[in-house]
What we know:
With 370 residues, the protein is an alpha+beta fold. Helices cover 37% and strands 12% of the residues. Strands 1-2-3-5-4 form a 5-stranded mixed β-barrel. The N and C termini lie far apart (116 Å).
Amino acid sequence: MRAAALDHGARGARQEVIPSVPPPPPPLPRPTDAPGCAPPSVPLRLLRLRSQATGRARECEAILWGVLPGAREADARRWRVCWRAPAAAPLPSAGALVQVALGAAGLAAVQRGTDPVAVQRLWSLPRVQPGVNLLHTVPVHWLPSEPLQGLDVSHAFALLWARLPEALRAWFNAIFWEHPQRLWAFLHAPASLAHHHACRHGLLRHSLECALQAARLSRSDPEADPGVLLLAALLHDVGKAGEYEAWLSPRAHADPRGPQSAGLSLRGELLGHRLTGLEWMAQARARLPATLAPSEAQALAVYHAIHACHAPAWVGLRSPRTPEAHYLASVDALSGHLELMERLWRQGRAQGVRHPALQGRQYWPRHTLA
């Protein structure tokens, strides 16, 4: 009887009518879903920001660099934008990468090419995007105007960038993504104070020269990993972006006499660019999600290529043991010595003048052998 009662109760329970749950309301349209609105912009560089509190809101105005949606020309330019933000909303800092959403009025202003452009909102990009070429996000005056081996500097970097796999692009970007002043220093600082490439943009030019030459030399070598080699060449001196006091930020660099007037920063005095670069790279890799981070094997190969050098065993360093390490050591020395000799010749130094950086050896530029 009890079993029958339970069975009857179960059948009764199955016959209960469960009230249907009403479907959720449709989501509210986003600002860019409205007719006449443009999709979010590509990443833009925030150069300057001003805001003024007005009750519970803030009136904001910013100077951006990049391409806004609806622009008639694909070339990046400087834009002045304005918007209203809640008083409690966080604002990105100058130098950060941001995106904007445009309404119909802002889109019309962009198409006319007039400033200021009213944007509906502006937000920062906290996550590293490996598809973003960082040299396309900076003003043209951040880059050297002189060509590099017959190529525009931005174009030369784009050629190298296209050969990097996604994980290594993400690693490169992660070093600078949240550190715009570090990127500024990497693009502006010299490669040395009195040795090779001791001039504005010297670090960038030397890094690109090494990467371009390494790509040429290893083109027909199946044993060399092109991605590992190119990233190691681009980043082998990245720590110098934190080594020179006067080049740590645009505000710090105020001496018109050039890099020779600058001394080493505290980090440069105590650690040097090798340890600084290793620290930055390790921190950047640790911040990447597992889906973007380079593998342990890739990371070890890049680290070894950068830090391997010929030194006594008691120093604790390791000699080059991979093709990438040998290629990088060769092109690093080649770029430095050739630039130094060429610059000394242009300064009017006669043949045979000895320079400490050349260890007292005489040098013969190609002009003297013609």
